[in-house]
Amino acid sequence: MRSKLTNILQVVILVSGVLYIAVGILFYLSPLLVGTLFGLPLAEDWFNQIKYDAFVAPLYFVTRGFAAMVFSAGAAMVLPLFDPLRYRGLVYFTGVLFPVMASWVLIRNGISFQHTLAVALGIMFLAVFLVTAAALAITRKAARSGEE
Q: pLDDT at position 1, please?
């Protein structure tokens, strides 16, 4: 039987996974749609710009590749729900390491260049990092003794 602290960790993992899946799907389907939702101005010939611009085209496809990775990480977050002790490493990588690195880059550059979308995503990743790190910290003692 799982403890209440482990249940807290599992809720955090579930919410993080759902966030990752939602963001991944949105960006994978269309990064431009997400930009439009945040009020970013788009040129009328944006589709041609993506196809023919040597810099914008790779950025567009890298963003979609990033979205596929975020979606996959979100889908992988279902594993720790069944065995939180065994998949604790996965939680550290997808819930602590990745979001702290992503939030630092997104918030720092989003504020510097005044990009609302980058700041919003950075804050989301920062929240995932803080909540996951806290949940891992409160379950650390039980995990070391193998009681999760």
A: 55
User: How many Å is the Cα radius of gyration of the chain?
Assistant: 18
pLDDT tens-digit readout, 6-26? 999 999 999 999 999 999 999
3-state helix, strand, coil in the chain (%, to 5): 80, 0, 20
Distance, CA of 87 to CA of 91 (rounded, Å)? 7
Higher pLDDT: 47 or 117? It is 117
Q: How far apart are the first and last CA of the chain?
A: 8
State the Cα–Cα distance between residues 148 and 136, nearest whole angstrom: 11
Q: Output the pTM of the full model.
A: 0.89
On the CB side of 25, CA atoms within 13 Å amount to: 7
Of 133, 139, 81, the residue nearest 103 (C-alpha): 133
